[in-house]
Amino acid sequence: MPMKAFVDRENEFAIIRAFVEQACAGQGGILVVEGPAGIGKSALLDRVTAAGGPATFIPLRCHAQVGQLEAYGPLLDLLAQMEETRSRRKRLLRRSGESFRSRWPELLTLVPSFGPTLKMVAETLSGPVPGAPLVDNRMAARSIAEAVLLTLREKQPVVVMIDDAHRIDGSSCAALSYLSSALADQPVLLVLAARDDELTDNPPARHLVEDLCLHDMARRLRLGGLPVPAVAELAQLVVGRQPSASTARRITEQTGGYPFLLQYYFSEEKTRLALPAAAVTLGDVGNELAGNSNPESGLADQVGAVIWARLRRLSDDDLRLLSVASVQGREFHSKVVARLVEQPHDAVATRLHRLGKETRLIYPVEPDDWDESIGSDRYSFEHDLLQETLYRDQTPSQRRERHRKIGQVMGAYSQEHPEPPQEIALDLVRHHRMARDWLAAGRAAHDVACRLATTGASTREVVAITAQGLDDIRRMRGSSEADRLRAQLIELMLTASELSWRTRPEADGTVRLEALSTEALAAARTAGDIDLEIRIRYLHGKVLLYTRGVPAALGPLREAWERALHSGNAVSILLAGCEYGRQLPKADVAAGLQVLHQTETTVAGLPEVANNADPVVQRARYMLALQLGISLFDAGQIGPALDRLRTTIPAVRLRAALGLLPIGLNYLAQVEAAAGNLAESEALLTEAVELNDGSEPDGWHAVNLAYLGTRMTLDRAEPAGLPLLEQARAEAELTWQANLAPLVANLYATSLIAMAATNPIHYDTARQILEECLSETRRTGMRRSEIVALSLLGRLHLAVGDTMTADGYSAAAVDKLREVDWRLAAVCVEEVLYHHSRIQEARGDGEGAHESLRLARAEVLRKAGSLTGPARERFLQAVDLNQRISAGHG
Ligand SMILES: Nc1ncnc2c1ncn2[C@@H]1O[C@H](COP(=O)(O)OP(=O)(O)OP(=O)(O)O)[C@@H](O)[C@H]1O
Ligand SMILES: [Mg+2]
To answer: In this protein, which residues make up the domain named Orc1-like AAA ATPase (predicted)?
Structure first.
């Protein structure tokens, strides 16, 4: 951007400099520069950068038009910029720490200029799996924040300035939120410049700024109009003569000292003075302003008027060229414009070059790799307001037709020169939408969302983009292509957001998730694509699992699995088998284990699976391994379960972006605890809990928190465990997932009962929780949680001396277990039996107690049989329950 006359802003400049100095002294922070469009935010930042100083200045911008959808837009620009300035020897991967490296590969590929090369390196480091999230938003955001900090370390002290932050994407906001907490003792100053009114329309950005200010982590700096002396000075600088004091005052009043208007007026004035016939004086500027604007007409009209005063001097051809260019956006390509005006590129390139030099309405921008690959120059309009004015001056049909052509041209370029930067891919979607070319818009949205889901770590934007694509597809009449896209878009949206599915019904009683998966199922069926249909069927089963519980889900899941086996398609078999095999054990452990084994052996080593880059497929691969581990445990085979999970977890840790780590750690923690390795279990749970900062509710965080709290109270009688459980319950309530909430409730109750010996009030809380849990599990058919709740109610009533009621509950639990032949996932049979025997004993039923204890002991011995040597000893000696069972009478 060419430098322009700049006046005043001395106070603001001094404030920013003070922040810079403070950062240099090791006390970083955040500064938000605010004000309306054209008030001079960018100009001020440019000024600060140009003045140079004790720090490295890194100017960044959020891209016009697509900013809010561009996951990590400015931060990836920052990483790319830094990487370019770094010597080869020092490049990032050599220097990064272990945990960082493991999360980095997927994120890397978002940066087009160096993604592919570094990704190769990353793959050799972390194994042969290309990107594969289901990504956990928070972890990704934190990784990016870490990456940014790590990168900045080489340049410290450093001032990072993000301009146009009102357009920033939600993922960047999440990363900045992490970053902000690290800044206090880092020599890093972050400056965000934003239009205040538009900031309000961007919720993640608004929340970020409000939150930072609330916690005193950021300061706001508001820009207003220029004062009279500054206006006079600007006139002098631009026009070359000093206005009278009264004229300067009048102009200031009429423009509000608004720099954008002033710049345009004064440069207009300068041009007029240069014309031979011009007999105007500077005073006329003010007159014209007054004439143009009645007090009612706002700033926008004045802006339009001054811009047109300049545009009117262009030839018709030049004006048309810029008009067309404004449809592409604030930045545009000479190649695209040439195609639209149907003229040779060379001629258009020459005219744009001349326009840039003579008018300053546009200026050239450094082309990136993609621009170069399509052989185009890239230009930017001098100001957003200029592009907006030109764009608004076209009729709707003109705009639509131009968007349509731009969509076609850019679409073709993206085919010939693949891997366009994220911003270009998103812009393509926008042009198709503006042209109302719904099918193309949906397809482009699916492409870019897929790429983002595979390579990126930004669920938020994946969901936003797919939702938009879905909206588009719904606007058109059905065709098999549209139906396929509709199903695919829903599939991607639901899969990407699984970690935060909300299952509560809307006000009208519908459950949005179910409505979506049902819509996808219908669409996949009409599209006539068998593999897609199988995948959607299993997705639908999964949704039902969350919304209605296991029994409702098993039907569609079994169907998907049977169809998959019939089709012989390895990927379908894996996906359907993984999910069915994961849910079936909740009703039938042995049958579930068998489905998992069959799936594993069927797809083992098949390249369609092993080399598949689809994140959904990769996730299923690892999920299958974890599920086999926990199912072995549920079947009482503690030894094999330990072996399998201990070997799988390191691989899952390396692929943290898959989003499976919270699940895997939980499984292993459960088995370690059951084997008597209590400290190991607690450490794993601590690791799992720390994966999430609790800022957004997520079901697995709640579960891990609950398990951790339980370990603390049960193993160490540590009262600090209870608040964790309370928090877990609140979080589980928020996500309201049918399969997780009762689990958490039961864990909480277990700990309350254990701690009630010293504080009997806990009995009341526990009773209330268990009774609620019981009615909830009866409604959703979560049998295992129902049995556990019954047994716990039995224990509770025994403890308060109500043996009759205790027996009623506990016997019901035992009966239900007997019905399933003593095998049910996630239910510790010997525990239920042991406590039942105590209740029976209290009631004087010695024989019954004896029998229950005998069964419990048999169960313990059966499990011990899967262990050998010291592990077996440990299981029998270090697990409190097992000891009590073997020491018990009977
Ligand atoms: N202090 C100043 N002195 C002289 N000219 C200025 C000053 N501040 C801004 N301008 C001019 O006013 C115009 C608008 O300024 P700028 O682009 O910085 O506004 P902005 O607040 O960044 O607007 P937007 O929100 O649209 O990005 C530019 O032409 C700029 O050169
Ligand atoms: Mg600006």
So the answer is: 6-191
